[in-house]
Amino acid sequence: MTVSAEPRPRAVAKTRSRAQTGRGARRSAGPFTYVVLTMLAIFALGPIVLFLFNALKTTNEYATSALSLPTTWQWGNFLEAWQTANMGAGLANSLIIVVGTVVLTCFVAGCAAYALARLEIHGANGFISYVLIVSSLPGQMFLVPLFATWTKLGLYDTQLGLIIIYCGLFSPFATLLLRSFMIGIPKEFEEAARVDGANELQLLFRIVLPNAWPGFLTIALTTGLSAYNEFLFAVTFIQNPQRQPVSLAFFTFQQGFTQNYNLISAAGVIMILPMLVLFLLLQRRFIDGIAASGLGGS
């Protein structure tokens, strides 16, 4: 007795109807999805585009209408804002602070996440709860004790002191994010390496870290953006104009040129442009990293 490999007509009909139903559902949801995404894009990009248009206007055009297109494109506003606001020095200082913060945060968070994900530590769950609580506290709570401590240690008005503060602010979230990555790495890789005689440091640098690089890229991007945009701790702990990041350079320029809004807009565009380009280049990696960590929802 032979069994026919041909599918039953009724089963085929049900499969086709389900497939057609699924395609129809996707078609019906398409226009609504595009409308929502378009509205979100306008909401996100609208202020930036308006900011750019105002940076290209003359003072009279801006005074006439802040919402219209520029009639004459004043590209010289960017050069004048760059020179007057000392944006070059501010961007260089921000680069030092961002790179130092990213490197130190990745090192601290990587070691802590590896210990929580792979080593048998007594009280690890309590430490994770502590990290969750600390990451939810506002940073303003620590301004006064940090100011007193940093003054005694000689770290006040130094970029190193600001980098250490940023590392303390961003490490809790980075640790939790990296821990979720490392938990997802199969332990069979490490067991095979242990059979070959690898120690814990070799497992960390040759097995775990290479497989967790999407997580490191994600926390590097989020930490870099946060350190670049942070203002409160920067204005509190950096007073020397030669060490100020670009956020403080822009703030100082804005206070001194309150009536020249087109130059202020040009300086603002210069400030946001590096991080905007960096995020656009790495957005796919960033989204993939968030999704792989399990923090992006189901």
UniProtKB/TrEMBL annotation:
Please tell me one Gene Ontology term that the record gives under cellular component: plasma membrane
- Residues forming the ABC transmembrane type-1 domain are 91-282
- Alphabetically list the UniProt keywords: Cell membrane, Membrane, Transmembrane, Transmembrane helix, Transport
The region called Disordered is annotated at 1-25
Gene Ontology annotations of biological process type? transmembrane transport
Kindly give the InterPro entries that the UniProt entry links to this protein: MetI-like, MetI-like_sf
The transmembrane segments are: 32-53, 95-115, 127-148, 160-182, 203-228, 261-282
Tell me the protein family, please.
Belongs to the binding-protein-dependent transport system permease family.
Name of the protein this chain belongs to: Carbohydrate ABC transporter membrane protein 2 (CUT1 family)
